[in-house]
Amino acid sequence: MDPSALQTHVAAAKAGRPEGYQALLAAYNSRLYGYFYRMTGNRHDAEDLLGETVLRLVRTLPDYREEGRFEPWLFRIAANLVRDRFRRRKAAPAVVSLTEGSDGNGGDLAASLPGREGRPDARLMAAEASTDLRAALDTLDPTTRNMILLRHFAELSFAEIAEIMGCPLGTALAKVHRGLKTLRRKLAPSTAVEQ
Hints:
Blueprint: H1 3-14, H2 18-40, H3 43-60, H4 70-91, H5 122-139, H6 142-152, H7 158-165, H8 169-187
């Protein structure tokens, strides 16, 4: 969204006009959902966090000062909600369903991936790749995982990530670089040859 349109929509939403909120949600809904889904690995949690973000946006937008950029402000809200969700989850016992699908919601993760319908094994391969990526991401520390997802799934700049996470730009660059290096190493096909 171009800056002048964003400013217009933010002003409309701050004035309490529904079309301002609708335009902001239309612009950021899919990126926020993608970020939440990658952070949680669960459609239900992603939708729940998206709803919480909308509520938080409605409650806090009147206090938003336009000195900073809107996008990092919005994703800081999102990152804080994810962090709070993980803290609550650590305190509660984990519940694992043996009957739900791979997305924790009874659905098939691979079914939502576009462009692979032609191959019979495409769904299986996509589900396996998604599971491998989720497992590799889960081995990273939460801050690094969050930074990588903000960069690659929310499509934020390193400066915006540093602002959201409250760290220097160099720290954000280094953590993302090291995290991606770790992911590449964990996801690389095995080079061991069976004899």
